[in-house]
Every structure is written in structure tokens, then in C-alpha cells.
Amino acid sequence: MDEEISEGTSTLDDEWVKAGDASLGSSSINTSKNESSSISDGGSPAGMESEGRGAKWGRLLGVLNRPDPNSYEWDHLFNLRSQSILRNDCRQLAKKINNTKSVPELESFFTLYCKMRSIDYQRNNGWMEIYERLVRVPMATDQLFHIFYAVTTKFVPRDTRKNSAIYDLFRLILQYHDPAVCSKLETLKCAPLNYAKEWFNTVFASHMDEGPCHVLWTHYFERGDPFLIFFMGLVLVVNSREEILNYPIDEKEKLGTFIEGLARNLTEEDVADFVDLAVFYSQRTPQCIKEARYLPSYDFHCMIFGANLLDEFNEVSLSKLICFPISNQELMRRERSGDSAIRYFIVDCRKTDLYRRGNVPGSFSLDCQLMVDAPDQFAIGVNSLKKYKSDQRPDDHYCFIGYGDELDDQHMIMVVAKLLAEGTPHVCVLDGGFKSLHGYLSSIHQLGKLHAHDPTICELCGGHGQHGHQTTGVLSLVSRLSKVVVSKGSTMKGKMTEMVNSRSMPEGITMHVSAKDRHGKKYRKSSQQVFSIDGESSEDELPHSSSVYTLKGEEKEKLLLASFMSQAEVIDSFECRELIGDKQLPAHIALTRTHMHILRDCVDQPGYATTTARLLLSTVYNVTCRKKIPEVLTFKFGYETEIGEPTITSIHRFYIPMAGECAKAVKTAIYAIRPLPNEGKEETRPTSTGAGLENFSL
């Protein structure tokens, strides 16, 4: 019966197992306390202390007075996919516990456990080691089952395989407290998987003697914090810091085994101090790992210990995190609490002008973009920061606040990576950056907690007056695009200026058309181009006036967009957003031979739109785009007086993803409506429109 059984469906008769199934019945449970007193404790005295330990574990785990596990309705069939593997492992376990439990009893125990959790058995998952430690403590069989169930579901991570999130989380914890050791282990390619897997799988049972293991479990269950096992592992690694940093490179293959076996050195007397150290490190680590409600994107508890929630939880990769993220709630709570174990030294990495418009009180301004644009100035800032922190706030933890955007925060990430490479401990970033913090404070009407915050000039407040409660924490599309382009610095500005100037007409050449060639309006006496790039004027300087050609009687009529665009008269159309004040309204521009139609999308009825304006192409006075945001086109409609004075009748501004194509189509349509020159007469085309098209090719 001791021969190995290959993986697959068992070919043995299950009748011999059903005798073990009866061992979980009520009759055996009633007498199990007496029977358990004969179990050998492997050299440990089986006195009142051991008996009290089982009861204490049951109380700490909240499983006292649980119903008989056999009351669970199951099919009593031993037909797990890995049943033969389970049976073979039960034989090995029976030998280790001196056959105090028979193989049928053990197989019934684990089969019922698997059926209750709707999972299959997997070899080397730590169950056998945990059961071996539990069974040596006298307790009733049903109590043993409930304690085993609680330990394996509350304190053992649900996934300990390669690439599991537990190893990334342990790396983040180790890096937070000792980045030098973390870097050394990564250099030697000794990942947490190489030494911590059995710690998590067996709750240290496989690498500790029975006595210290039982004492450790008592402390662990009493604390009730499943994440404490990560900090127990941290204590083992940090306390062997010198050995790890000086470990010979030519023996790096043995480093994982060395670290894995560190727990064997613990005695029963050492356990209390060991756990206290773990609690110490836990309290000095960002609490976001335990507060899923504050960081829903990183629900660490569900990610690490969630049981049977794989279909309900979308796991986030922790391997991409450069350091710990903390929540807005934790940052503000730590700032309010004077007796907190953690105080944050806040480094605001945004531009100086944004910092001055609103910041967290007591924060240090460090424009991280200077790391690239002005390295010498940046070095001075970093040195000042380090000196101030070491002199005034040496025990505070670093908390970096960025914009809250992956693109804009690249320089901040570079600074954080540099600090970690230098071995600087206790470095974290605010999840979502200042944008998220602003949104959080706005949602609870506490924007007044920000220093020097003025809602009238704060771009995140969206220009909603002095209260700013309508803030969503998201920049407007135009502001967002503007910020991205501006971040490129003066280089882009210089290139665009050079390209625009290179396309201008030579000095001294002025080209005209005769007055009779004018179509739809008087001869334009001003030299302003129809199509141009507006590089300096602010958008706020341009008035927003409704068009005199706005439809009065039909402006509320809803049109089917697809039907309207398919009309033969429509020669081109462009999807866009009409910019009115701080609003962005989904719209479409449709061009016919003689008119420009502005169709505003019906938000409540997708696919439909209302015609808000129909404007003559012959009244297009000026079309400009912004240097910084070429996708934003401003159309001015009007005419010139007899003396050449411009009269603007309406202005419409749009954000058009295909702005260049739109400008080209408008220009082509304008040229198409011009009359042909009289035969035999020379005509010189005006320069303004042609130059404008070249500008839009940018």
C-alpha cells in the first residue's frame, strides 16, 4: 500500500476510504478529545498548556461552537481530479505523525475540505505541513478541521506560484525599508520566490521547530493581521543585512537557501521579540496595503488573501510599481495626527508656478523637469531638500506628489528611482498625484486645507467661481493638450516659428486682385491672412458671439447625422468639439458648396444632432490655429467696410482632431466659389489663403 501512485484518476476501490469518512462523524467527534490525548507531540509535553492552546486558537480564529463539518452537504465521493496525488501525500503525512491518523481519515479530511471550497488539491501547497503542526495539539476532530480551514483561508495567500503578487508586494516592502538589501538581492537574481515561498505556504511551519512554530502561531492569530507574515519575513532578511550584502557572488545560488533557513534559528523565547519587531515595521509602512477602501485600484487583501474571488476581482500588476502608492486619506490623516508612527516629508514635483497656486502645507517644492532642462539648478534643489530634511525632519518618510499623469510624472519617477538607487529608505508616491488630492478635498469641501489655493486661477477647479466644488479632478481637453505641448519647452516653439517664417512671402511683394473679382464681399484692404497661426494671443481674448446666421426656427430640429452627411450637397464633414467658454460640446462640421453647417450632437439621443448654425463660406474672414494646440481652429465670420475696417459678426472655436484636413477643405471650398477671371486678363491670386494652407501643414 506504500507504493507510489501516478497522477490521474484513482484506480483503487474507494470503499476502504469511506471508513475514514466515518471518522468525521459525530460519534467519533464525541470521543475525539479522549483519543487525541494519546497523540505524540514529537517530544513536546502533552499537558494542560497544549490542550489550552487548541482552545485558544479556536477562540482567536472565531471557530468555537462551529457546526459539525459533516453537516455540509457533499456527495461523499472521492473523485477529485488529483485524488491519487492526495492519497499518496496522505500516506507520507501519516508516516510523519506516526500513524496517529490513518490514511483514510486524512484523505477524508482533505477531500471534504476541497469540496467545501470547490477547489482541487495541489501538491506542495503547504497543507500537509500545516496539518502536521496542528494535529500535534490535542483538540477535537471537528475543531481541528475548523482551525485548519481558518488558517489556510485567512493567513495563507491564495496564490504562491511564480509571478504571484505576493512576491511583488514583499519586494515593495523590503525596498521601502532597506533598498540597499533589495537591490543586492536583485543584482544576485535572488527573487522572493527563491526564499519566501515556503514561508507563505506553510506559515513558517516547514522551517521552524514545533515549539517555536506553535508560539509564533499564537501571536500571529492573536494579532489577527494576515499581512504580518510579510513583516516577519522582512525582519528575517533585514536582521541578516550584513551577511546578504557581503554574500559571495560566486555562491549566489545558495543565497536563497540561506535566507529561507533563517527562521530555524528562532527559539520559543525569541518569538515574542520577533513578532514585536514585525509589528514595528508594519506600523511604519504605508497602511494602504490594508485599506482597500482608500485605494480600490490596489485591493491588496483581496489580491493576496482573497478566497474564491478570482472571477470577481481584476488583479493589478504590482511589478510595475516603482514604490509604494499611498492614498489621499492616509496622507491627510498622517498630517493631522501628531502621534502617528509615520510623518511624511512631502515633495511637490510640479512646476513652481503650479505649486504657488496651491499646495499641501509644509511641502517642499522641487520642479523635477529641471533634472533635464537645468541639471545644475536641479542639483542645488536636491541638495537643499536633503539638507533640510536631515536637519529638520530626519525621521519623516518621503512622499512625492506629481501631476497625476503618467506622461507628466516621468521626471518625478526618475527622481524617485535615483533616490532608491542611492539606498534612501521610506520613499512613496501619492497615488493619482495632486490632481487626485485636489479632487478628494473638493469632494469633501475641504479645499481650504491647501495652502495658497485660489479657485479663480486654479486650473483643476475649472473656473467654477470661488467655491470650486464642481471640480472633477480632470483637466479639460484643451488644457491637457496645451500642457503636453508646453512641456516640450522652447525647442518646439523655436522650430514652429522658424517654419512659419520660412513660408512667408518675400519683402516688397504685394499681390492683389481687382475689386470686380471679389465674390460675396468687398475687396479686402487689410493684409491679414485668412489662414494663419496665432502664436501669442490668449484664447480668453477672443470673444464668443453667436452667429448672425444661427437658425432661428430650426435650431431645435433633430437630424439623423448619418442621413444628413449622406446628402449629395455635403462634400466633406469633420467630427469635432465646439469650445464655448469652459465647455466642450460634441459637434460636427459639414461643408457644402456654399455653406458651413455646425451640427451639435444630441447627448440624450446618440446618432442625432441639431443644426445650430449655417454660415456662408464667402463670409469667412479669418481662420487661425494656435501654435501650442494646432488642433484648435478659430473661425471668424464677417466682412470689411468700405475703408477696410473689419467687422466680425461671429466667432466659432473648435477642437478638431483632423484640423489640417478641415482647413484644407475649407480653403478648397472658398476657392471653388470664386469666379473665373475674365478671358484675356491676367489675375494674381491673393497670397493670404495659400500661405494659410501651408501653415496648416504643420
From TrEMBL:
<dbReference type="GO" id="GO:0099041">
    <property type="term" value="P:vesicle tethering to Golgi"/>
</dbReference>
<dbReference type="Pfam" id="PF00581">
    <property type="entry name" value="Rhodanese"/>
</dbReference>
<keyword id="KW-0333">Golgi apparatus</keyword>
<dbReference type="GO" id="GO:0042147">
    <property type="term" value="P:retrograde transport, endosome to Golgi"/>
</dbReference>
<dbReference type="InterPro" id="IPR000195">
    <property type="entry name" value="Rab-GAP-TBC_dom"/>
</dbReference>
<dbReference type="Pfam" id="PF19430">
    <property type="entry name" value="TBC1D23_C"/>
</dbReference>
<dbReference type="GO" id="GO:0005802">
    <property type="term" value="C:trans-Golgi network"/>
</dbReference>
<feature type="region of interest" description="Disordered">
    <location>
        <begin position="678"/>
        <end position="698"/>
    </location>
</feature>
<dbReference type="GO" id="GO:0005829">
    <property type="term" value="C:cytosol"/>
</dbReference>
<dbReference type="InterPro" id="IPR036873">
    <property type="entry name" value="Rhodanese-like_dom_sf"/>
</dbReference>
<dbReference type="Pfam" id="PF00566">
    <property type="entry name" value="RabGAP-TBC"/>
</dbReference>
<dbReference type="InterPro" id="IPR001763">
    <property type="entry name" value="Rhodanese-like_dom"/>
</dbReference>
<dbReference type="InterPro" id="IPR035969">
    <property type="entry name" value="Rab-GAP_TBC_sf"/>
</dbReference>
<feature type="compositionally biased region" description="Polar residues">
    <location>
        <begin position="686"/>
        <end position="698"/>
    </location>
</feature>
<protein>
    <recommendedName>
        <fullName>TBC1 domain family member 23</fullName>
    </recommendedName>
</protein>
<feature type="compositionally biased region" description="Low complexity">
    <location>
        <begin position="26"/>
        <end position="40"/>
    </location>
</feature>
<dbReference type="InterPro" id="IPR039755">
    <property type="entry name" value="TBC1D23"/>
</dbReference>
<feature type="region of interest" description="Disordered">
    <location>
        <begin position="1"/>
        <end position="53"/>
    </location>
</feature>
<keyword id="KW-0217">Developmental protein</keyword>
<dbReference type="InterPro" id="IPR045799">
    <property type="entry name" value="TBC1D23_C"/>
</dbReference>
